[in-house]
Specification:
The chain is an all-alpha fold and about 90 residues long. Helices cover about 50% and strands about 0% of the residues. It has four helices and no strands. The chain has helices at about 15-35, 40-50, 60-65, 70-85. The longest helix is centred in the N-terminal third of the chain and has 18 residues, at about 15-35.
């Protein structure tokens, strides 16, 4: 069924880089775990070396993580760590 010619159609997509990185992390983490790898160790190996072979190609995880800059991955990890921290900054 075609849309009415007199109605405006909307096209939208998520351009929020934070959400995009989170989705990539979710996909990669789950794919690594499903394949029996330690996701944390493998993702750290990738971030530190830039070598994509640390990430499985299962479920396109490797190609997805390569679409995100490694510094964006680190930024998101740090952002989440700080957001969820249980320590309080020292008072000077």
């Amino acid at each position: 069924m075609m849309a009415e010619i007199n109605n405006t159609q909307y096209f939208s997509f998520n351009t929020d880089p934070e959400l995009r990185v989170k989705k990539v992390f979710d996909l990669v983490y789950n794919a690594m775990a499903e394949k029996g790898y330690n996701p944390v160790n493998q993702i750290v190996g990738y971030i530190m070396s830039g070598d994509p072979t640390y990430i499985t190609s299962y479920k396109n995880a490797r190609s997805m993580i390569m679409k995100v800059e490694r510094d964006e991955l680190v930024e998101e990890l740090l952002r989440e760590y700080i957001k969820n921290r249980s320590w309080e900054p020292e008072q000077e």
